[in-house]
Amino acid sequence: MARKVLIAWGVAAAVLLAGCGGQGTASDQKIKVGLVTQAWDNPAIKDMSNAAEAAAAAKGNIELLSQDSRDMQDMVTKLQAMIGRGVKALGIEPWDKQQIMPILNQAKAANIPVFILQSEIDGAHGKGLVVTSIIGDETAGGTVAGTWLGRQLKGPAKVAVLEGAPADTPGIERANGFVQGLSAANPSAAVVARQPADWARDKALRVTTDILTAHPDVHAVFADNDEMAFGAISALEARNLKGKVPVVGYNGTCIGLRATYQGTFAADGILFLDHVGAEFVNSVVARLDGKTVPEKVEPPITLLTTAQLKQIAEGAKSVEVNGKPFAVDAALAKRVNDAVAGRC
């Protein structure tokens, strides 16, 4: 059975940026490590990359070659270039789990350990293609959001769901979890539309507009990320429905948290992608030091409402999410306070 690590929420920031300190990988020269993610125009992905860069800088002996990509082909091209440069490890946030397989085989042939971010590729660990997958439980995260919204709607309701890219596993799992949570919390609620909007604000505006044309009586919208939630808000505003139809976003970007604090979003699912980026660097250093690293690392996931964000801004150390306490550490408090102050 694959070993799994859940990052301790209360001490994550300290753990992720501490560790080996460069002693185990004794070298006077910096070790080149590659990282290729999906597009940085998604603020959450940029947050993850920034956290990886900060963690690498803190180590002192890691040179992180960090790039984003516009699609799968662009990602493959950049990864092949990094393999050609002889990086000592690779981090990948794949656009498609199947199409990334040739790259994993190329990296293995070059003896380059691979770390997968925000995804998990079946069988890759057993074949020696992937060292560690660093990903939150997307289904559970979606379920938290669906459970909360189902309880708020109370009775028959029509809900629209905006997914990410069609083949993007995290988005699919997130939406699946949302539907499961919604149905369990409110069996009379129905998902009347579930369509991909490619993680993009402009595409979400068009898709939501079409959904509202087909279903003008939609009661709520769930979006797989904050950018699509903003697109949905624009579509609702055009029909004078802003504030009347609740929108739940996801990712917990600074602008998403600010929108939730201000009441534009009803709630926002919180991904801790800064933990993912930092843990990638920690795992690389541990592996290069000859240490055993877990096959899977899970950062925490939760959902925060307007009321809960106001509690955190006022200094709350814990908030209740679907009837369960969720601890607020210094890192989350800073993240919320930055959003409230508009430091995005």
UniProtKB/TrEMBL annotation:
**Domain of life (superkingdom):** Bacteria
Q: Which GO terms describe its cellular component?
A: cell envelope
InterPro entries according to UniProt: Peripla_BP_I (IPR028082), SBP_2_dom (IPR025997)
PROSITE patterns given in the database record: PROKAR_LIPOPROTEIN (PS51257)
Q: Which UniProt keywords apply?
A: Signal
Principal localisation: other
Region forming the signal peptide: 1-26
Compartments where found: Cell envelope
Q: Which residues form the Periplasmic binding protein domain?
A: 33-291
Give GO MF terms, alphabetically: carbohydrate binding
The entry assigns this protein to a family as follows: Belongs to the bacterial solute-binding protein 2 family.
Name of the protein in question: Ribose transport system substrate-binding protein/ribose transport system permease protein
